[in-house]
Specification:
By secondary structure, the chain is α+β, with helices and mostly antiparallel strands. The protein is elongated, with a radius of gyration of 22 Å. The mean pLDDT is 85.
Amino acid sequence: MIIIVNIFAITSAVLYFTGKVAPLAFLLSSTLWFSLMLAFWFVLPIIIYRKAATFKDRFRVSFEEQHMFLENERGSRSWPWKDFSSFVESTSFFHLYFNSRSFFLIPKSAFPKEDLHAVRKLLREKIRK
């Protein structure tokens, strides 16, 4: 959806600058594009995160020799390392994949800066691609 909206915005800008679209039409389409981008990037995530109880919980993750352990005030769960098929590191998260459609996010901010290298090393050892 975002790709289609951006293609529409680029197309309308090109048509405006070539003189094939009136300024009012370009202004309306630009306003529509800006509104949709605000909704997708800011409004929808805020609404979703505010309603979901999962995003309000405080979690503690620990990595052990045989499994990864996750707990909060309501309970705990552990996964053996063999349950994870791969992991990907992004700018702010470690993505631990169970399969191509299911993954688990661990924010890097949960670890002290000096421990990030050790976490990377552990994930490479335990989760073989």
